[in-house]
Amino acid sequence: MSMRHRIQFPPESSTLLSQSDAAFLLHEPGQEPIRMRFHDYDEIYRRPGLYEQVFYDRLQCSSPEKVAQLLDEAVRANGERLAGLRVLDLGAGNGIVGEALKARGVARLVGADIIPEAREAAYRDRPHVYDDYLVADMTALTEEQRAELSEWRFDALTVIAALGFADIPVQAFVSALDFVRRGGWIAFNIKESFLSDEDQSGFSKFIRRLMMSPALQVHHLERYQHRLSMEGEPLY
Description:
The protein is of the alpha/beta class. The protein is 31% helix and 19% strand. Strands 6-5-4-7-8 form a five-stranded parallel sheet, with helices on both faces. Strands 1-2-3 form a three-stranded antiparallel sheet. Strands 9-10 form a two-stranded antiparallel sheet. It is globular and about 55 Å long.
């Protein structure tokens, strides 16, 4: 069972930061408070239950269940079954998305993340979710890693709450798409502001081009509440 951690969000006046720079304080016995950014995944994953406590208990993140459900519904509406799919879960973290997919019966599930702490946490917290878990930089795959991913013959790619910021760049997303068979499925979400004309991450132009491309058929597009900000405001 994961322990409960003592966490503290800073006053509202100090949270006027970009989402990638947002941080909280972690109080551990006998130590000075530790400031952790939301994207300090290596340190967060080392502490069992901390990621869930911050993002799911306190900030009410809904994306793994939401997107897994929508993928299931879209696949069924197209006359297929999620239980027949081999899925690559990119930016898999400690396996929360994988758990939502596994609960819906995916045939084979492979996680991929850039940091070893993610794989260690996934195997520690959810040891029966992934059939394999690759630690790799998708923008600089070795020949061995390419061969390993190709052998799975993926039918679907999921990228949940990991596109944009500095987590998964456009090039990594494109690289992962290459491992999905023609006619396969892609399920992903992206912060709505990344689709605005003011976006500087490069995702706006790429996603618009992808959605307009004949290479992609859009089965479902929806605006929904991903989670709350530290001030309790919805993030879509």
